[in-house]
Amino acid sequence: MDAAQLRIVIADDHPLFRNALKQALAGKLDAQWLEADSAASLDALLSDTTPDLVLLDLEMPGSHGYSTLIHLRSHYPAVPVVVISAHEDPQTVAKTLNYDCQGFIPKSSDPDQLAAAIEMVLEGETYLPECVADFADSTQVENDIGTRLADLTPQQYRVLQMFAEGMLNKQIAYDLEVSEATIKAHATAIFRKLGVRNRTQAVIALQGLEMEKKTL
């Protein structure tokens, strides 16, 4: 692959980290860097362009832990996704693999390791840090809600995110420029696909994918 043609998306809500990552990889990868600071801005970006790689932080505004990863793998299967996260425990790595990411890079990695990991994924391989590779390979995790979430259309997924934000049907319809009847139809489809009865249960199911809080 011609490195000069690479287009890599950094999806992270911290501008300092995005800038630090670009600076760390300057001179190691010749790429055009695209940026997203939320699940919504990432989805909008991918609707207009097809990058060679997405570097995804699991915790951005609009994300619920693994939900954005699941959505990307379901609706943009041709785009490789590498999770880059401060959550470096083996259980988190195992879950990202279960949801079909192409690699996991700890945020504590040095620039050489970052570049090597990205190059490996761009060549079609899966990258894992050595300290967790054996554990991740042997771990089985529950993925029922992830499978159900992957069945949602992009618009249904957006509506579910808005439910989680506490927005009313009228507000969602206004923001998405559709009728309230359309939102109600989306809601019915969401409940059916997730196997729940109402929006509260749907939001609880989505929140079940959130990351465990790190303790100091």
From TrEMBL:
Residue stretches making up the HTH luxR-type domain: 145-210
Tagged with keyword Phosphoprotein: yes
Domain of life according to the entry: Bacteria
User: Which positions carry 4-aspartylphosphate?
Assistant: 57
> Single Gene Ontology BP term?
phosphorelay signal transduction system
Domain Response regulatory: from-to ranges? 7-122
Q: Which InterPro entries has this protein been placed in?
A: CheY-like_superfamily (IPR011006), EvgA-like (IPR051015), NreC/VraR/RcsB-like_REC (IPR058245), Sig_transdc_resp-reg_receiver (IPR001789), Tscrpt_reg_LuxR_C (IPR000792)
Q: Which Pfam families match?
A: GerE, Response_reg
Q: Which UniProt keywords apply?
A: Phosphoprotein
Q: What is this protein called?
A: Two component transcriptional regulator, LuxR family
From the broadest rank down, the organism's phylogenetic lineage runs: Bacteria, Pseudomonadati, Pseudomonadota, Gammaproteobacteria, Alteromonadales
